[in-house]
Each structure stands twice: as C-alpha cells, then as structure tokens.
Amino acid sequence: MAAFILMQGDYVWLDLKTGREFDVPVGAVVKLCDSGQIQVLDDEGREHWIFPQNATNIKPMHPTSIHGVEDMIRLGDLNEAGILRNLFIRYNEHVIYTYTGSILVAVNPYQLLPIYTPDHIRLYTNRKIGEMPPHIFAIADNCYFNMQRNNKDQCCIISGESGAGKTESTKLILQFLAAISGQHSWIEQQVLEATPILEAFGNAKTIRNDNSSRFGKYIDIHFNKRGAIEGAKIEQYLLEKSRVCRQAPDERNYHIFYCMLKGMGPEMKAKLGLGLARDYSYLTLGNCTECDGRNDLADYSSILSAMKVLMFSDTENLEISKLLAAILHLGNLRFEARTYDNLDACVVVRSPDLLTAASLMEVEAKDVMVCLTTRTLITRGESVTTPLSVEQGLDVRDAFVKGIYGRLFVWIVDKINAAIYRPPTCESSAIRRSIGLLDIFGFENFFVNSFEQLCINFANENLQQFFVQHVFKLEQQEYNLEDINWQHIEFTDNQDALDMIANKPMNIISLIDEESKFPKGTDATMLYKLNSQHKLNTNYIPPKNCYETQFGIQHFAGVVHYESRGFLEKNRDSLHTDIIQLVHSSRNKFIKQIFQADVAMGAETRKRSPTLSSQFKRSLEMLMRTLSVCQPFFVRCVKPNEFKKPMLFDRELCIRQLRYSGMMETIRIRRAGYPIRYSFAEFVDRYRVLMPGIKPSHKQEDLKGTCQQIVSARLGKQEDWQIGKTKIFLKDLHDMQLEIERDKAITDKVILIQKSVRGLKARTNFLRLRSSVVFIQKVWRGYRSRKNYQIMRSGFIRLQAVCRSRKYYRSYRITRRRITLIQARCRGFLVRQTFWRRLRAVLTIQAYTRGMIARRLCQRLRAELQRRLDAERQRLAEEEQLRNQMTVRRAKAQAERKHQERLYLLARQQEERDREEKEEARRKKELLEQMEREKEQPVDHSDMVDRMFGFLGDSGPLPNQDGQAPAGFEDLEQAPRGEEPDEMSNDAPPLPDEEEEDLSEYKFSKFAATYFQGLSTHTYIRRPLKQPLLFHEDEGDQLAALAVWITVLRFMGDLSEPKCQVVLNDGSEKIPVMTKIYETLGRRTTYKRELQELQVEEEKRNSVRHKLVSLTLKRKSKITEEVRKAAGIITIVAFPLQMCTKHRRCSANLDKTHFCNCSVSVK
Q1: CA dihedral of residues 35, 41, 42, 44 (deg, nearest 10)
Q2: Where, in this chain's numbering, is ATP bound (predicted)?
C-alpha cells in the first residue's frame, strides 16, 4: 500500500529496528518506487531496498522536518527522530544553534565559524528571541534586557558533557555583555582578561576535549543602574588537583605548565632550572606534551598580558613561576627502598631536581628529604617519627604537590576577585543587578572513575534537578494553582538519585565523610557501609562480589561505576604535620601566604579541616540558592562526536545526550505550556499603552477584565492564551507579538512627545532668536546713529580747524614778515659787527706784521751797522798797527784793502744767508705741497709698518738681538764688545755639569697636534676658523678667540676691512681703550653674525684671482677722508696712538697692532 502512496522525491522515516538502546528512525528520501521494490537513500548516504510487504517500517515525514526549523516546538514530528534530524540538517549547513522555546541547543562545531563578529553583536542587540535566527548572542541579549526590564537578577546555566563547548559559550556571552554594556571601561577588560588566566591554571587536554575545564566556575557580573558593568565575582568549584600528579593516556597536565616551558625566556628558565616538557615526569604520564589545537607560546604571552591587566605584580608572577617550577622538579624525584629495623623505608636519591626544588621553595634540601621519607605522629604529647615506604613517600610527595597547586589556584581566583569585584555601597546596593554565568564540568563517565567524577556528576545531578524543577515541576505546579486548562506532562525526575547521593539521611556523601573522619577508616570499610545502606536502592549498583572495589550509581545520564580505592584520601584533602612544618620553615613569604590557613591550624589539620565532599556540597547548596532567586536561561551544549572532528555527527551519541537531558519532554512542555506569565497588575501596567483610555493598575478595579480586554483586542479570542486566578499565561509568540506592538505604540507616543517637545523647542528658539534680532537691530541702529553723529562732529571739527588755520595763517604771515625784517636787521648788524671786528683784527695783524718786518729790518740794519762799525774799528786798529811798520799812506791803504775784503766777505755771508732762507722757504713750500699730495693718495699699510717697525730686521742667531736699533737708541748697541763688565769677575763658581735636556721634543707642531681642536695644524691658514684652536667651555671665550683670529687675519692683510663709520665729537676719545676692548669682546651676537658672514664670504672666494690676492701682504684700502686726515696727522706730528679710538674699528696696521697688543694683554 505504501508503494502506491509514496512517490519519487518524498521524504520518509526509515526504522531499521536494530534493537540498540539509542537507535531511532532515520530520515530518508525515496529514489525509486516503481520497480516492485522501494529504493531509499538515508541521511547518512546509505541505500536501502525495501520490499512492499516490509514497508511498515516506513512512515511519511512532516514537511517541517524536511528542511528543519529554528524552533523545535514547531516540529510536526514531535519525537526523538524529528529532534535529531532537525539538529543534523542544521549542523550540516553549519548552523549550530537551535531554539526550544527560550532554551538554546548548541552543537559544538569543532571549528571557528564567522558568526561572532562585532557586526553580529550589533545585529542581535535589543532583539527578542525569535526575531533573528538562533544564536548565543540572542540568549545573552535577552538576559541583559530582561534584567533591565524586570529589575531582576538573571542567570544563564550552560550544561552539557565534557567537550560540548560550555567554556566557549561562556566566553561568547561575556564578550557580548561587555560589548553591549556601552561603557568599554577598564573593568570590562579586566573581566574578559580573567578567562585566559583561569583556563591556563584550570583547563587541560582530555581525550574528549582539548580545553576541558577541570573545575567549575560561576561568574556573577554586576551592572549599575545605567546597565554598565561595574564589577564581577568568580566562584570556583572542585579543582581536579589529582591531574597535577597523574593523567590518563593521551591527556595532558594543566595548560600553564606547557605554556610556561614554551614561552618563558632562556634567562628565566635557567634561573628556575627548567628545560623541555618531555624532561618532567608530571608532564609525560599521559604520553602527550603537544596539543594540535593550541599554541602554547602565544597563550603564554596572553596569560602574561592578562595578569598585567588584573594587577598581578612582577614579583607575584615570579613567585607563581617558582612554585610551578618547584612542582615539576618535585615530580622528578626518585625514591629507593630501604629497610631499617625490619621496617620498610625509603630515601630520596640526591639529584639537581631536589636542590632546585628546595631553593625555589626557599627551604633546606635535607628538610625536604626528611618530610618526604618520614612521618611524625604526636601521641599523648610525644612525637614519634616513623619511616615511610616508597609508595607512601610517593603519596606524600603527590599530596604536597596537589596542596601547593590547589592553594595556588585558590589564591589566583582571590587575586582576580580583588581586581574585578567592587563591594556595593549603601546607595548602589538597591539598584545593582547581576547576570550569573555558570560554566561547570559536564557529566563524566570514564573507564576508571574516581572521587572527582562522583563530585562532578553530583553537581550535574543538581543542575539537572534545577532544570527539571524550573521547566517541569514549578511550571506545572503553577498551572494547577492558577486553575487553567492543562494536561499534565510526564517527565524523568532525578530527585531519587539526588536524595540517595546527598539529601536523605545516611546518603553516600555523608557515609564517605563519616568514614573519612575515622582514623582507621579505609576504602573497604566505606564500600561495605555503602553496600549495607543502599543495596536495595534501585539507583545504587553494588559490587558483584566481595572482591570487587567498584560500585555504580544510576545517574540521569546513565550508569557510572566508581572505583572506591583512594576515595577517603582524596576526600580528606589534608596535609601531614611534617609538610605544614616544612612550609612554616620556608623563607618564601608567598608560599607561607597561600598556606596561611593550614599553618594557623597547625597539627590539628586533619581534625579541624572539613572534608572535600562537605566543602563541595556546601558550595553547591549556596550555588543552588543563588540560582533559585534569579530568572534562569538555559543553554544545552551537545557534543556531536567523540573524535573532536568537524562535520561529523554521531547519531547515537547525540540521541543519548538529548534523551538524558530531557529534551523531548522539554519540547513537549514548551510546546503545550505557557512560558510567559504576568500578574494582572504587571500586564496592565506594561501593555495598557495598546488600548487608549486604560488607567494604571492601581486605579483599576477589574484587573482581570482589563487584561482580557487587552489580550482579546490584540491577540484575538481564538489564540491559545489563558487567564488564571491571578496571572495571564501566554506563548512565546504572543509575548513577542505584544512586545512588538508595545514598542510600536511607545514609539508612536515617543514620536508625538518628540514632536511636541521639538515644536516647543523650536518656538522657544524662535522667540529667543526674535528677541536677539530685535536687540541686534536696536544696537545696530544706535551704532549707525552714533557713527553718523561722529561723522557730523568730525566735519564740524574739521571746518573749525580750517577756519582757525586760515586765521592763524594770516597771523603767521604777518608775524613772519616782521620776524624776517628783524632777522635782516639783526643779520646786517651782526655782519657789520663781524666785518668791523675782522677789519680791526686784520688791521691789528697788519700792524703787528709791519711792526715785525720793521723790527726785523731794524735788527738787520743794526746788525749790519754793528758789523760795519766793527769792521771800521778793526780797520782803524790795523791801520794803527801798520803805521808803526810802514808809512801812514801805505798803512792806510793796506788797512783799507783788508777792510774791503772783510766787507766783501760780510756781503757774501749775507747773500749766503739770504739764499739759505729762500731755500728753506722753498723746501717748506715743497714739503707742504707734498703733504697735500700725500693726503690725496691712499695709505699704504705695509710701508707704514716698514717705516715704524723696520728697525726690527731679521731674526739673528741670538735672542733679543734682532735687527738694528731705531734712531736715537744706537748708543745702546755700541757698548765695547771686547770688554767684560766688572761684575763678571764676581760671579759664583759654575754649577756641576748636568745632563743636557733635549729641547727638540718641545715643538709647536707637537703641541698643535696634541691640543688643537678638529683638523687644525701648526701651519698658518688664511681663512677664518670655524672653532677656536684650543678648547673653551664658556661661549664668550670661544667668540673672543675667534674675534682675535679675525683681527690677526686683518692685520696680516688676508681679510678685507669692514666698512667703517666715523663718529666724531661723540666723547668716545675720553673712554679708555681697555673698556672698548671688553665691550667689543662682549658683543657675542655681533661677532657670531660677523663670523657667519665671513664664512659665507670665504666659501665664495674660490677663484684664482682671490687666491693670488690673498698671498700678498701689501693691500691698500680705501678709507674715508677723515681717516686719511687722522693718519696724516699721526704720521707728521706723531699724534698719540689713542686718537685711533675715535673710530669704531681700526683701519690702519698701526691701529691693528695696538688693538692686537691690547687683546693679547686682556687674554
């Protein structure tokens, strides 16, 4: 019959009836149905040929199951096969999220999908469930906005098996909440950075998951009234400390060890004595040191940066690394068996690991050996030391290592909480709200299950009961109390198993605790008590015989068998007195800090410290109380396969997870139930905006009728909604529809308010603008009037000024004519007075001159007369003498002849004097003319220097004997050369001969090579220096040295003279020369600018002509007329050298010489 109904391309359910527990019908498509047999191709790609007589195992498929739906309560095939195929189809399309009402089902893709970008965060912000495709961001968004809308704390419970993706889902929700809180503050970054640290110290690679959380955590994120994150708090549950000491095959230790060995620098590793991961026993027990999906080097950098963000100091990071390194070194210790006094004993083989571990913990190596090989028992006040066997020594070592790591992890969590937790103030405590994220270990069932698995599965039983209670129990109980039309739905309840484990008297946890407190309690006695108490319970599976050490428990997810060996030791979780004393003797403050509570309890540690199971039970009870006061959201994570491979869907594994999680019952109750419920007052206050004219709830008398009126008007009377005694019950679809209409109505009202407010604002702005315009007009008009008034006033003032100027001009002209007349009269008077004064002076000069000429003529005539009289007397005397010798006539003639001769001689002498006077007058005239001509000629500096310093001559062989002495000083050189002064004979006797000192080493070239700066040598250069020859610290000394060198260049004629401006009669001749030199040397900016100009000028002088000119010493400079006159006066009348200071700069070589001498004396 089915062959005639089915057609090619139809989708059907194919029940293969294999008989396996988790086998369900599989979806298939009909390929061929007209050949007597039916050929179908199932979802896994296998072909099946079915005979028509066996077609009873084929059933038609509902259209909703063909391509899948986003919300599984809409499935037409409401069975396990329909749920499984819906997840399978979406998983193959890389769609991993599916709704079950408000519950999210997430299938681990084992690959990174591009659906977590900032665009997706913006896309899912402020959206209700159902508006967008299913996503983890939608759950986070509804948590956040329900917290703000209902003003109630929220929680998100993420459950699933190990490897199902719970940790990643938690991180994604954290990322979304940090993004939409809108503040992007430092605290948000700190909350996000806590995850890498917790994962490094609390996660490890297992056979089921590369990043399995080996502890549980509840992150409580606190928000202020604006919805911004203001803090968080992390609670940790049951760290798997045994993983530090042992791992199953293909598993690793905690991530931090491998990250530290990969990412730590060589210097730090050498300081801690670390090597490679394969060198340590604690890291190689699982024969796996690498993880393909992780980059330990990059993760270590992320861990360090996260620690900096969370305020871990460098000292704390170093102490953490030292303890981790000490754990690795302790794991490499080897024990050898010994026998002392017929007692089994052991010793620790000395090795570098022992010394390194002791130095890192800052204890003595011998104390570590004693602590690990002996045990001290205190009996009646006396201490007894007993040796330990090798097995006991290994247990003590492992217990010590687990104690260090466990307490280090607790300290790290407390350190993170100290950074991110903000205690509520009195004002904010009432308005602070929170969202809790629970990421706890999933249900575990290994080949060998121990005490840790019992605690983990106990926690999952509590979470399952919380889920059952909220989804099934409380919901159906509320339906019955409200007396609405409802058919009860059966569901699987795990309360009996939970009572057996922890709730009822004599439960498993209490029996384990009781046996742990007995000093002689063993794992065998504990197992005996469990069998005796619970062997009749259907959820307890006792051992098959008395030799087995395993017992089983029927959990909600299946039967798990636990190995009882080691239960009590793990439950006690105590450290021996020797270990506490070893920690107390340590010089390391950090290890004392993390063991502070144990050290305080001292020797009574075993008796006082609570057991691990009691601590864990108390933590779970507090967690359940916290979750019970929050509005929960559930995320069910599903693991698609055991091989951690993408795009591989294990049907039996998935259906097992769906079955024990109660997904079928969840879909049924979500489909038939009413997950949205409001009290009448809440419904009226929230949705009265949909009906105009409805008053608030506190003003209503018939709230139930008002609610019915609103819901009938908006949803219709035929829709599946119900009204109870105090509440109204709605579907998710109805709530979304009402919320959309409410948002629309509120938006319309907001637009109306905005329109009115904007109109008011616009009118207010218009009035303000109009008043401003009127005020501006008033001010402008006043300004224009004042401006016109000023123009008119200035015009009248100008007119007054013109009139007054004309009046004053006329008065001025009259006064000017009068003054001109007075000036003419005065000038005439002064000219006449000057003329007469000069006339009198000329007449006086003429009189004196004529008198002088007359007197000179008189004197000459008198001298002539006197000479003639003398000659006449001499003639008479001679004539008188000759008369005695000859006749009178002859005597007279002879005397007359001699007299004539003397007169002739006197005439000749007079002529000679006249000629000499004329010659002297001519010479003076020529000298004056020559002086006039020299004034017109330029001054030759070289000739002047030669004339003034020519007497120096060339250097002689002896010192102080250079050249010929100047005129007037020749007598100083004419001392007799052959004569020795008398004082030479009185010299002291000669001193004894001494070694002659070689003066050839003291050369100027060596001095220059040693002390001159830069590339300067001992040779003379004809250009300005860029830096002084010798080093000067003061900038003024440097400029002075450069100025002296410029002066030397000008003196030598290798640098042109600057243009001088002659300043006459300014009183500068009264200023001392040294004062002017100091002022000149002090002009730093002037010399600096002059040096720069000279350097630029020097660079331009690169032609052959400039080079030739720079070689000569005789260069003539054109100077002003006043300077030439001054130079002429100096040359002729030997005017003092101080006259050169009248000019601003010396222009002659003589002036330069004087300036150089003055400069050298200053230096």
Answers
A1: 150
A2: 160-167
963 annotated ligand-binding residue? no
Residue pair 412/197 in contact (Cβ under 8 Å)? The answer is: yes
The residue from 27, 130, 163, 286 that is catalytic is: 163
Determine the pLDDT at residue 985: 42
C-alpha span between 942 and 680 (Å, rounded): 124
For the residues 467-493, what does the mean pLDDT come to?
Answer: 77
End residue of a domain, out of 1055, 1082, 1109:
1055
Catalytic one among 167, 289, 302, 516?
167
SS3 443: coil
Please classify residue 561 by burial: count the beta carbons closer than 10 Å to its beta carbon, then call 0-12 exposed, 13-18 middle and 19+ buried: middle
167 belongs to the catalytic site: yes
The answer to whether 442 is a known catalytic residue is: yes
What's the CATH code of the domain at 26?
A: 2.30.30
For the segment 897-953, what is each residue's pLDDT rounded down to a tens digit? 888 888 888 888 888 888 888 898 888 889 888 888 877 777 666 666 666 666 555
Q: CB under 8 Å to 1085, separation ≥6 — which residues?
A: none
Prediction pTM value: 0.62
* 353-396 residue pLDDT tens: 999 999 999 999 999 998 988 888 776 667 788 888 888 889 88
Find, among 695, 687, 696, the residue nearest to 735 by Cα: 687
With 60 as the cut, is the pLDDT of residue 507 above it? yes
Check if the beta carbon of residue 136 is closer than 8 Å to that of residue 172. Answer: yes
Task: Give how many domains the chain has, as a whole number.
Answer: 2
Tell me the C-alpha distance between 837 and 830, whole Å. Answer: 10
Catalytic residue among 65, 100, 102, 162: 162
Helix (H, G, I), strand (E, B) or coil at 1132: helix
Which of 1055, 1082, 1108 terminates a domain? The answer is 1055
Q: 1037 lies in a domain?
A: yes
Helices (H), ranges, 501-638: 508-517, 523-534, 567-572, 577-584, 589-594, 596-601, 605-608, 612-628
| Buried residues in 111-126 as b, exposed as e (16+ CB within 10 A) | eeeebbeeebbeebbe
Active site residue 1103: no
pLDDT, residue 456, reads 87
Structural contact between residues 666 and 464, judged by C-beta atoms closer than 8 angstroms: no
Decide if 130 is catalytic.
no
Q: Is residue 37 part of a domain?
A: yes
Q: How many residues are listed for the chain in this entry? A: 1163
| CA distances for 673 relative to 103, 182, 432, 680, 920, angstroms | 14, 36, 32, 19, 153
Q: What are phi and psi of 379, to 5 degrees?
A: -125, 120
Q: Is 213 a catalytic residue?
A: yes
User: Above 90 in pLDDT, residue 793?
Assistant: yes
Q: Looking at the domain assignment, is residue 29 inside a domain?
A: yes
* 140 found inside a domain: no
Catalytic position from the list 444, 452, 475, 879:
444
The model's confidence at residue 977, banded by pLDDT at 50, 70 and 90, is very low
How sure is the predictor about 321, in pLDDT bands with cuts at 50, 70 and 90? very high
Give the separation between CA 693 and CA 688, rounded to whole angstroms.
Answer: 8
Residue 959 has pLDDT above 50, yes or no: no
1113 DSSP assignment? S
Q: 44 is in which domain, residue-wise?
A: 10-61
Instruction: Reply yes or no on whether the pLDDT at 550 is more than 60.
Output: yes
pLDDT score of 1148: 43
Distance CA 481, CA 677 (A): 13
Backbone angles phi, psi at 99, to 5 degrees: -90, 150
